[in-house]
Design a protein that fits this description.
This protein is an all-alpha fold and 53 residues long. Helices cover 62% and strands 0% of the residues. The protein contains two helices and no strands. The chain is rod-shaped. It starts with a helix and ends in an 18-residue tail after the last helix.
Length: 53
């Protein structure tokens, strides 16, 4: 029974860690926008196509 509890603790902590990593990846653009990207100029991704007509 001790082995089963130990395995379940490892599985539970692994799932919690995976969830935290997924949250960080999902909100990465929000997290980085608040810190460093306000200072830099970021051109529009469609500026390259402005001359195509």
């Amino acid at each position: 029974m001790k082995i089963a509890r130990f395995v379940l603790k490892i599985v539970g902590s692994s799932l919690a860690l995976a969830g935290a990593v997924c949250l960080i990846i999902g909100y990465w653009d929000v997290l980085t926008a608040q810190r460093c990207c306000k200072r830099r100029f970021r051109p529009s991704e469609y500026d390259d196509y402005a001359d195509v007509d």
